[in-house]
Design a protein that fits this description.
By secondary structure, this protein is of the alpha+beta class. Helices cover 28% and strands 30% of the residues. The strands form six sheets. Strands 1, 2, 4, 5, 6, 9, 15, 17 and 20 form a nine-stranded mixed beta sheet that branches. Strands 22-23-24-26-25 form a five-stranded mixed beta sheet. A hairpin with a 2-residue loop joins strand 25 and strand 26. It is globular. The N and C termini lie far apart (53 Å).
C-alpha cells in the first residue's frame, strides 16, 4: 500500500509550486524603457564647445501612459566652472514640445509630451544642443586641448517599476540609465586621437590609430620676439590643430551611456583579446609620451583584467575596450561603457592595479545596469570585491579599491569604534565623504567576502554567473540579487543580507 501524503507534505508542495509561480510571474511582468540615440556632434577646440543634434527613439514598455519625460541636462550642473548646455529646441514626432524646470535642480527638466504616450508605443524626440565644456571637474571637461566628454547630451531619466528617477549631478554618486543603442558621429580637427564608447566604424581611422604606436610629442618652449624688441617664452603644450577636420563614426548596442576622450598627444597601442570561445575584443591603450614607461605593459594588463572578469562573472558583451591615461590627479572617476581613464600618478597605485580597478568599475554598472545612485554598493562594493580577488592583489599590499591604502581596514574600524560609520545599503548622497569610500569600497567588499565564505567559493561563483546572465542590461535591485543567490544556492541568506543594514564590522 502507498503511504498517505501528509498534510505537511501537501503544504510544502503547495508552497514550492506557489514559489515557482510567483518567480515566473515576477520575471514575466518585468519591463524597462528603452532609448536609442543618434547623435551628431562637432568639437570647437578654440572655445572648448560642442555643437550637436540628437535624435532619441523612446519606447514606452511600461504599463502606464506617459504625459511627460524627465530629462537630465547635466552640463548645467557646472555653472561655477562655466559649464552649461543650451540652444535646445525639443520636438516630439516633429511637434514642438515645452519644458518645465525642475523645482530644485538646474540640471533636470520635464519634457511635456504634446500627445500622451500609451504603453507599447514610441516617439521620436529631437533637439539641437550646444555645450560649453567646463575646466576639468569630476571627470568631465577639458584641460586646455585635452577633452573628457561625459554626461554631455540631453538624456531621459529612468522610469521603472518604482517610478521616475530624475537625479541631479553629484560628484559623490553615479548615474542610472536605461541601456539602449548609440549611433554617434564626432567631427573634430584631423590630428586628434579619440577614445570612445562603442566600435569605431572608420577603417582608415583604425589604420591611423595603429600608426600612432610610434608617435612622440614633448612639450615645446621657445622664445618669440614681440614688437618692442624683447622676447617672451612660448609654451606649446599641444601640437597645433589641423585646419581640416574628420568625422568619426561609432556604434554600440546595449550601452547606458556614451563617453569619449580626445587628445592630440596620445600614443596608441592595440591588440585583440579572446576571453571566451568565439569572443574577440579590441583592446586599446592611449597615453602620452611622458607616461611611456608606466604604460609599457598596459595592453597586457587590460587583457588580463578582461580575462579575469570574464571568468569571474561572464563574458563582456562589448567588442572593444579603451584604457586611457587620465590627467595628473584627475578629479573624480571616468568609467563608462567600454572606456575608462586612469591617473597613474596617485601614490600607492601601480598601472596594473589601476587598470584592473578601472575595468571592474566600468564592467559592473554598465553591464548590470543597477541604480548606482540609490544602491551604490551594488556597483562600488562588487567592483571592489572582485578587484581585491584579482590574482596576487592580497600579496601586493596595495589597493585597487579607489586608492585606499593598505590600512583601510584600520581606518574603517577606527571610524566604527566611535560609531561614525554608516550601513552599506544607503543612497550615495546620504554617506559622509569618508564613509562613501570606507563603507562602499571597503565594507561592501568585505560583505561580498562574507557571502562567499558563507556559500563556499564554487557555489558563490555559480550564483554570480547566474546573476550576471539573468540581469545583464537590466535594472536589478538588492532583492533581485538576493533572489538569485537564494534560488541558485538553495540556502537561506536572510541573515547575511540583513547585515547590509547594520553598522559596525561584520
Amino acid at each position: 500500500l502507498k503511504k498517505p501524503v501528509t498534510v505537511v507534505k501537501k503544504l510544502l508542495l503547495l508552497l514550492i509550486i506557489n514559489g515557482f509561480i510567483a518567480t515566473g510571474s515576477a520575471q514575466e511582468s518585468y519591463w524597462q524603457q528603452q532609448a536609442d540615440y543618434t547623435i551628431r556632434v562637432s568639437l570647437n577646440d578654440n572655445d572648448h564647445t560642442l555643437d550637436g543634434f540628437i535624435k532619441i527613439l523612446y519606447r514606452n514598455h511600461s504599463p502606464d501612459t506617459l504625459h511627460y519625460i524627465w530629462f537630465h541636462l547635466w552640463p548645467n550642473a557646472f555653472p561655477e566652472q562655466k559649464g552649461y548646455i543650451n540652444q535646445l529646441d525639443f520636438r516630439v514626432d516633429e511637434v514642438r514640445a515645452e519644458l518645465e524646470d525642475h523645482p530644485a535642480h538646474i540640471g533636470i527638466v520635464k519634457l511635456l509630451l504634446p500627445s500622451a504616450l500609451p504603453p507599447g508605443q514610441q516617439v521620436t524626440i529631437t533637439t539641437p544642443f550646444h555645450v560649453n565644456l567646463p575646466r576639468l571637474f569630476s571627470g568631465t571637461g577639458h584641460i586646455d586641448q585635452s577633452y573628457y566628454v561625459s554626461q554631455w547630451y540631453p538624456k531621459p531619466a529612468v522610469y521603472d517599476s518604482r517610478g521616475w528617477h530624475p537625479m541631479p549631478y553629484l560628484q559623490q554618486g553615479a548615474s542610472y540609465s536605461d541601456p539602449g543603442s548609440f549611433d554617434v558621429t564626432i567631427t573634430l580637427p584631423r590630428n586628434y586621437v579619440v577614445a570612445a564608447t562603442g566600435e569605431l566604424q572608420n577603417e582608415n581611422e583604425k589604420e591611423w590609430l595603429k600608426s600612432r604606436s610610434s608617435f612622440s610629442w614633448k612639450e615645446r618652449r621657445y622664445r618669440k620676439k614681440i614688437r618692442n624688441g624683447s622676447y617672451k617664452i612660448i609654451r606649446e603644450r599641444f601640437p597645433p590643430s589641423d585646419s581640416t577636420t574628420k568625422t568619426l563614426h561609432y556604434t554600440q548596442n546595449n550601452a547606458q551611456d556614451f563617453a569619449w576622450i580626445a587628445d592630440k598627444r596620445f600614443i596608441v597601442n592595440h591588440d585583440t583579446c579572446a576571453p571566451a570561445p568565439g569572443k574577440v575584443i579590441d583592446i586599446y591603450a592611449f597615453h602620452t609620451t611622458a607616461a611611456q614607461k608606466q604604460w609599457d605593459n598596459s595592453i597586457a594588463y587590460a587583457k588580463n583584467a578582461v580575462r579575469y572578469y570574464t571568468d569571474a562573472t561572464g563574458a563582456t558583451p562589448f567588442t572593444a575596450l579603451s584604457i586611457v591615461e587620465g590627467a595628473k590627479d584627475m578629479p573624480g572617476e571616468y568609467e563608462y561603457p567600454a572606456i575608462a581613464a586612469i591617473s597613474t600618478s596617485k601614490k600607492g597605485q601601480s598601472t596594473e592595479n589601476s587598470i584592473v580597478r578601472a575595468v571592474g568599475h566600468s564592467w559592473f554598472p554598465n553591464i548590470l545596469s543597477t541604480n548606482a545612485r540609490t544602491y551604490p554598493w551594488m556597483d562600488k562594493g562588487m567592483a571592489a570585491f572582485f578587484a581585491k580577488r584579482y590574482p596576487g592583489e592580497e600579496a601586493k599590499g596595495t589597493s585597487t579599491q579607489h586608492n585606499l591604502p593598505a590600512f583601510k581596514k584600520i581606518a574603517f574600524e577606527s571610524v566604527a569604534a566611535v560609531k561614525k560609520d554608516q550601513p552599506v545599503n544607503l543612497p550615495a548622497p546620504q554617506f559622509s565623504a569618508a564613509n562613501y569610500y570606507l563603507s562602499l569600497y571597503y565594507k561592501a567588499g568585505e560583505w561580498m567576502q562574507l557571502l562567499e565564505t558563507f556559500l563556499g567559493k564554487e557555489l558563490f561563483d555559480s550564483c554570480i554567473h547566474a546573476y550576471y546572465s539573468r540581469w545583464q542590461f537590466k535594472h536589478p535591485y538588492p532583492e533581485d540579487f538576493k533572489q538569485v543567490i537564494t534560488s541558485v544556492s538553495g540556502k537561506n541568506t536572510h541573515s547575511i543580507f540583513h547585515l547590509l543594514e547594520a553598522k559596525g564590522s561584520f
